[in-house]
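User: I'm new to structure prediction. If I give you an amino acid sequence, what do you actually give back? Let's try with this one:
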Amino acid sequence: MWKILLLLVISSSFGLVRAHTVETVALSFLETGDSWQVEILLDASLAVPDLRDDPESLQPEREWLSSRSDSEHQLMRVEAERYLREAISFSHDGAAVSYDMVFTDYMASPPVFPKLLNGGAYMTVHLFGELGGEHGDFSIHAATDNSFDIVIIMDAPAEDSGAGSQVDPESVDKSYFTVLSGETTALFTTSSQGVENIPEEGGYSLLNLGFRHVIPDGLDHMFFILCLFLLARRWRPLMMQSLVFTLAHSLTLGLVVSGALQLTNWPTFIELSIEPLIAVSILVLAVENIVRKKFSKSRYIGVFIFGLIHGLGFAGSLGSALQLSVQDQGWIYPLAMANLGVELAQVCVILGAWILTIPLIKHKSYPVFERGCSVVIALIAGWMVIERVLL
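Assistant: Good question. You get back a string of structure tokens that encode the predicted 3D arrangement of the chain. For your 391 residues, that looks like this:
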């Protein structure tokens, strides 16, 4: 346990708790006969070299993007196109496929940028082109030096269709692919019989996205789970706290993903308070661990309230992948898969802490050890609050 805490302390001291790093770029892919198109919700920081190359930078907000001058927007479009063409390429039957790129937000004046779950700055980019041949695999390649993975949400006909045929929107299913840095992945195959779909990965990409939101990217979430563990290392209260927390963050995440709760319609100060409140929730639980001598059922109320706040944080940080997943598609499946990934990671944190404390649990000084861990977490959480409010 001390080794885990030491690792988290070192990580947070390097700014990883507050840093904004683009972990995934989501592509919504549609193949229709002899042509294809991709919709990308691109984190605007990738279009600004100073932000893209600085792991300490915070994600810019939508208002920041909207307030840029015409010349700044022009430079961002040029840089975004250059970067995307270096990061992502396509081929058909082994031959490179050229494509055109359009920034559709700029078709309006002034440009209208997408309102995503987290209120962040995103640009809508469309790539489109021809298949480039009659037979062979149509593949996507992610550049070796990419700092992000590619999550592909792919529309594919439920049944094979002949070349040049039109896709009935009612017969379209969703497939999910993950393309890691340096990988080439075949999306589908064209042959004399038409388009043959590559076996889909199902919801693995969304499950992996949810898992990575906690391990390794969600240090604040791991701190919260450890706070639950440190007050009650007994299965019943621990599992009950975990269940209450799960129900709470699933509720708010579901409301946002379904569109019933619109974060972007809230006053700006409320949106900006979500991340500081998540840090406050960790601080409160850590302090409670220090001052309480035993577990009380009243803790369930606090865990539930804090879970609602964490759910809003999930809705923002799971970002463009969930946003693209729910377009023209029911929201329950992508929500369930992403949330399942979060829960699997949460269980891993609990099991890891449980195993590491087995040699210590019977020692007389174990209660002191628990409070010592809570003190460390409280200090880190206090610094997180200061960072997210003042820095």
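You can read the tokens as a compact description of the fold. Here is one thing that stands out. The radius of gyration is 23 Å.
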